[in-house]
Design goal:
This protein is α+β, with helices and mostly antiparallel strands. The chain has 5 domains: 148 residues, 2-Layer Sandwich (Alpha-Beta Plaits), CATH 3.30.70; 56 residues, no CATH class; 118 residues, no CATH class; 217 residues, Hypothetical protein af1432, CATH 1.10.3210; 114 residues, Isoleucyl-tRNA Synthetase, Domain 1, CATH 1.10.730. It contains 25 helices and 22 strands. α16 crosses α18. The chain starts with a strand and ends in a 20-residue tail after the last helix.
Length: 698
């Protein structure tokens, strides 16, 4: 079988760096599945990207379009023959295959006999497969924002400008996409080589594109950048701070990386480190540097996209950075001239949200929540300390740096701490100002101190209540007010601190601060939805959370603790766990839609196994109650496991739904007693056991 290499290149106008990697991963997977679905064997498949192109290389692709004889089966003989003659169904079958009745024969298919026919099938050539399906694979690539730019209404992140498909060293023409036809050319670097480059083979493509100033492999571009970093570090005796997110972004912004180092006035190193670093990164995508003491050094590193005029480009970059740092220096020095007391009064005039009051009013609501939650958590905070922290919590919202310095708004909290420390505020209060902003996104750092964690939770609770009151619980994927993110932060902090408290009670207080009521079921379901999101990050299935949530527990940490134990047993003692769940599903099904008022009466037991099950359940109830109180959930599960053999034996030997109404009622009462014993911990009937059928009533 002949094997060859395949290369596909999609050229487009420059795409944002953050879109590139996810997009090429989708395309590679779609092309891989396309080949697999058509029975085409292949070796290594790789995707590459630059800001202006996606490239997929496929090695050792089988080129086999030979004809093969296949057997096609039709309807059963009972349908295909009537009174010994072929029926209309048989006739329709042969006509659909371009055959005649004489070509039919009978074969065994499972337990049935069916009619069949031999047919010659030609395997589609790879060229034809690509002509038919490449457009669909490109259509499947989704981006955060899509655009339409021509009459066919094709959607992509940016306009598509060329398409190159090479199979077996032959160009595949006549593939139409977004008013572009596949051709035999690529285009080099957007500035250094804009001319069309004819391509004859996959191997020659890589040679040609490199000569056209395009480093096609993002890993090679990264290596060039990091090697340049290393040279500059040795030459200037400093450390280039390798921000991995920034490096990923820059790698996606250039096709031919050229690394340069520039400098700025020492005066600007007096700014807080993150201000200087942010001025470099936010708009200019510069890397900042530090000296041997770990302090900001007056140098920056920029990655250019070409080697031409690099000295002039560097001077322009230095000028732009100087302007940004001058702005930051002005904001910083002016901000420090305003006393803290004045800033507290300024917040009374700054609107947090047009419908939800001022920043000062928000701080006072946070103080009310913090006072109650800190008492529940026994953190030992005085009312005066809570008030002082709250008064300073949003101090930097009134500053030039955060209010006017557009690229510095992400430093909210950090700048509050810096200003508070500079103006003589107690360091413990200053730290809370910064810590209460964390986490800002999934996976971000969490507050270090108890006080920081407390105010981070209360700040998010206030935002959650206010936004839900005004806009409702977010539906679908849209959440412009960040309500989900706020609740995610509350959950992350709560679990990290291992805090036990009633989240629903605190949410109720947050709504009370707005003099608003709320739908308790809707909010509870929203909380559980976010807990499921957290649990999935821990690889805990949603049905485990459902089993715990069915008890309407509202202690976040307790819910997760129970779920973790259930998850652990599900995979460490799978068979015993599954049997336990099946038994509880059986109990739940028996009790479904049955009203049971009577308690268990021992003298009504007619079978020895009834008494044994009841006695054993009463023996373990006290230990279950104690271990629930102490949160020894492993011991609780062990108690349930010890009861499982008696439950199984009961179902094997005792009929619950007997004719005698009194006996039946007592046995149903026993089932209710067993179910309630399990419901102390979770509703096991909510857990899904794959491959197990639901248990019917007995």
């Amino acid at each position: 079988m002949k094997r060859n290499n395949v290369l596909i290149e999609l050229g487009f106008e420059e795409i944002p760096s953050s879109y590139l990697k996810p997009g090429i991963d989708i395309w590679v997977n779609k092309l891989k599945h396309l080949l697999e679905r058509n029975g085409i064997e292949f070796g290594k498949i790789e995707g590459f990207y630059t800001p202006r192109r996606y490239v997929v290389s496929i090695k050792n692709v089988s080129i086999d379009d030979s004809e093969k004889e296949i057997e096609i089966t039709g309807p059963s003989v009972e349908i295909a023959k009537k009174d010994g003659e072929w029926s209309s169904s048989a006739l329709g079958f042969v006509k659909s295959q371009g055959k005649e009745l004489k070509d039919l024969y009978i074969v065994k298919k499972g337990k049935r006999e069916v009619i069949a026919i031999k047919s010659i099938k030609s395997k589609k050539s790879l060229n034809n497969i690509f002509k038919e399906k490449i457009k669909a694979t490109i259509e499947s690539i989704r981006f955060p924002k899509m655009m339409v730019w021509e009459d066919s209404k094709f959607k992509f992140a940016r306009p598509i400008r060329w398409l190159l498909v090479i199979v077996d060293n032959n160009i595949v023409y006549d593939i139409e996409i977004a008013d572009i036809s596949s051709s035999n050319f690529t285009i080099g670097h957007g500035i250094l080589n804009r001319s069309k480059i004819l391509v004859e083979s996959p191997e020659k493509y890589f040679e040609s594109i490199k000569n056209a100033y395009v480093i096609i492999d993002e890993n090679d571009r990264r290596k060039i950048i990091l090697e340049s970093f290393n040279k500059f570090e040795k030459k200037y005796n400093l450390k280039i701070v390798n921000d991995s997110d920034l490096l990923d972004e820059v790698v996606g912004m250039v096709e031919y990386p050229v690394v340069m180092i520039g400098n700025f006035h020492n005066q600007y190193t007096e700014l807080p480190d993150r201000v200087t670093a942010t001025a470099m990164k936010q708009h200019q995508r510069y890397f900042h540097t530090i000296d041997s003491n770990g302090d900001i050094a007056p140098y920056f590193v920029v990655v250019l996209n070409m080697p031409l005029n690099k000295e002039n480009i560097l001077k322009n970059n230095e000028t732009i950075l100087k302007s940004k740092l001058e702005d930051a220096y002005f904001y910083y020095t002016e901000d420090l001239k305003v006393p803290i007391e004045s800033r507290i009064n300024m917040k009374k005039e700054i609107i947090w949200h047009r419908d939800l009051g001022t920043v000062y009013e928000k701080e006072m609501r946070i103080a009310n929540l913090a006072k109650i939650l800190s008492a529940k958590l026994d953190l030992g905070l005085s009312e005066e300390l809570i008030r002082q922290i709250s008064l300073h919590l949003k101090i930097d919202i009134s500053t030039n740096m955060i209010r006017d310095g557009k690229e510095f708004t992400k430093l909210e909290g950090y700048m509050g701490r810096i200003y508070a420390e500079q103006l003589g505020i107690n360091r413990n209060i200053a730290e809370v100002i910064e810590e209460h902003m964390y986490p800002r996104w999934a996976g971000d750092r969490l507050p270090i101190s108890d006080n920081g964690a407390l105010f981070a939770i209360c700040d998010r609770l206030d935002s959650l209540a206010g936004y839900v009151f005004k806009y409702g619980i977010p539906k679908g994927s849209k959440d412009p007010m960040g309500i989900r993110r706020a609740l995610n932060g509350i959950i992350d902090i709560t679990l990290e601190r291992k805090w036990n408290y009633d989240i629903m009670a605190i949410i109720a207080l947050a709504f009370d601060n707005y003099n608003q009521s709320f739908n308790e079921d809707d909010i509870y379901n929203f909380v559980i939805e976010r807990i499921k999101y957290f649990a999935q990050r821990e690889n805990t299935n949603y049905d485990i959370i459902n089993a715990v949530a069915a008890l309407k527990l509202s202690d976040i940490y307790d819910i997760i603790l129970r779920a973790r134990v259930l998850h652990r047993y599900r995979y460490s003692k799978t068979d015993e766990f599954n049997d336990l769940v099946v038994g509880q599903k059986r109990v739940a099904n028996i009790l479904k839609n049955v009203k049971i008022d009577n308690r268990v009466i021992i003298r009504l037991f007619k079978d020895e196994q009834e008494k044994l099950l009841y006695d054993k359940s009463m023996q373990i109830k006290d230990e279950i109650d104690y271990n629930i109180k102490m949160k020894n959930y492993v011991e609780v599960l062990n108690s349930y496991f010890s009861l499982r053999p008696d439950i199984d034996k009961f179902f094997d030997e005792v009929m619950v739904m007997v004719d005698d109404k009194t006996i039946r009622g007592n046995r149903l009462g026993l089932m209710k007693h067993i179910r309630e014993l399990f419901l102390i911990f979770a509703d096991f009937s909510e857990i899904i056991i794959e491959g197990k059928n639901e248990i019917s009533k007995k």
